[in-house]
Amino acid sequence: MNTDLYSTTLRQLNAKIIPFIIICYFVANLDKTNISIAALQMNADLGLSASMYGLGVGMFYISYIIFEIPSNVIMTKVGARLWIARIMITWGIVSAGMSLVHTPTQLYVMRFLLGMAEAGFTPGIIYYISCWFPKSNRARAMSFFYMGSVMASIIGLPISGTILNMHGIADIAGWRWLFAIEGIPAIVLGVLVLWRLPQSPDHAAWLSTEQKGWLKAQLARDNASVEVGANHSWISALKNKTVLLLSLVWFLQAFGSIGITLFLPLIIKSMASDQSNIVISLLSAVPFIAACLFMYINGRHSDTTNERSWHLGLPLILSGLSLAIAIYSGNLLVAYVLLILTVGFNFALTPIFWAVTTEKLAGVAAAASIAFINTVANFVGLGLPPLLGKIKDATNSYHYGLLIVAVALIIGGIIGILVSRPAPSRVSKDPASRLS
Question: For a designed S-S bond to 342, which of 37, 316, 317, 323 qualifies (C-beta 3.0 to 4.6 A apart)?
Fold first, then answer.
C-alpha cells in the first residue's frame, strides 16, 4: 500500500470536508436544542407546564419521523450537495420563525415544521461521509462530525444563555431574540453548501488524479464486503436483521442523547435552583466537553486497534450505570460529576456506531437504512420528553424518568456489543487501519 498517498489523501479530506460539516452540524443541533435554554423563560411566557413543554419538544420528532426516509431517498436522486443545502435553508427559516409564536399551539406547529425541514440532514451527512472516507478512518471522521453536535452544547448553550439575557431589548423577550438570531446561520450555511461540498471525489478539484483513483478504489474494496450493498433495494434493506438490530441499539442510545440533552438545563436547575440562567447554561455545557473528548479518544482508538464491538457497547453501559448512581447520590457535586460522565459515555459510542453501520451497508440501501435507523431512534424524541414531563409533574422529581433512561442505556450497550461483532473473515487486515 502507498502510505504516502493514503496520508496525503486523508489529510485533504480532513481539511476540506470535516471542518465545514462540523460547522453545519453545530448549527443544526443549536437550532434543534436551543429550546432547552429558551424554556427557562418561554415556558412561563406561554404558560407551559413540564408536560406541555415535553409535547412541544416531541412535535419536532413526529414530522422528522415521517419525512426522514423519503428525504434520504430523494437525496440519492438529486445529490447530497443540493439536498443538504435545501434542508439547511428551510430549517433556518423555520427556526427563526419560532420567535413569533404566542401560544402553545403555535409552538407545537412550528416544532412540527422544524422537524419536517430538518428531516434527512443527519443521515444525509453520515451517508455523505461514507462516500468519502475509507473504513480505516471512518470512526474518526464520524467523531469529528459529531463534535459539531457536542459543540452546540459546549459553545451554544452559553451563547444561548447570553442571548437570553437580551430580554427586554426593544421590548422583546430574550427567548424570542434567541430563536431569531440563531436561525440565521443555517440559511447562510445552506447557500455555502453549494460551493463548499463536492458531489463526489470526481468533482473534488483539490484532489489529484492519483488521489481520486486511490480513494475510489479503496472505497470500492470496502463496499465489496458489506452485508447490504448496491444490489439491494432500499425496501429490502429495511427488513435486514442487522439493520433492525442496529436500529434497536440506536433507539436505546437515544434515551440518553435525547432525554438528557433536552432536559439537562432543567435537571441542573432543579439541583441548583438558586443559580442564574447564565450559570445554569454554563453548567449544562460542561458535560459536552467530556463528550467531545470521549468521542475523539474512542473513535481514534477503535480505528487504531480495528476493534468495534467493545468500543460501541461498553460506553453505553457505563453511561447507564453513571446515570443510575447519580440518581441515588445524596451529594450534589458527585451527582453532577456523574451526569458529566453519563453524557460523555453516551456520546462516546456515536462515531463507532455509524462506522459499524456504514461498514455493513452501502449504496442507496445504505442511505435508506441510515435514515431508517435514525427514524426509529427519533420515536424516543416523540415519546420520552412528554413522559419525562409527566413524571416530573406527578412526582416533582426527574429521578424515576432518568432511571428509565439508565436501564435503556445499559440494555442498548449489551445489544450493541453483540450486533457489532464481525465475522472473523470480515476483520480488516489493512495496515492503513493501524496508522494514526
Answer: 323
Rounded-to-integer distance, Cα 265 and Cα 66, Å = 28
Q: Which residues pair with 228 in a beta bridge?
A: 361
DSSP state of 230: T
CA–CA distance, 61 with 116 (Å, rounded to integer): 9
How distant, in Å, are the alpha carbons of 259, 279, 298, 339, 416 from that of 33?
A: 11, 18, 25, 18, 26
Contact 143, 299 (CB under 8 A): yes
Integer Cα distance of 272 and 283 in angstroms: 10
Task: Look at the chain and count its residues.
Answer: 436
Q: What is the pLDDT of residues 120-145, one digit of tens each?
A: 888 888 888 888 888 888 888 888 87
Q: Is the pLDDT of residue 436 over 60?
A: no
Q: How far does CA 178 lie from the centroid of its chain?
A: 21
Instruction: For the beta carbon of residue 282, count every other beta carbon within 10 angstroms.
Output: 15
Distances (CA, A) of 40 to 92, 264, 382, 391, 398: 22, 12, 21, 19, 16
Give which of 314, 319, 310, 201 is closest to 259, Cα–Cα: 319
Q: Which pLDDT value is given to residue 22?
A: 86
What's this model's pTM, rounded to 2 decimal places? 0.72
Which backbone phi and psi does 329 adopt, to 5 degrees? -80, 130
| 337 in Cβ contact with 370 (< 8 Å) | no
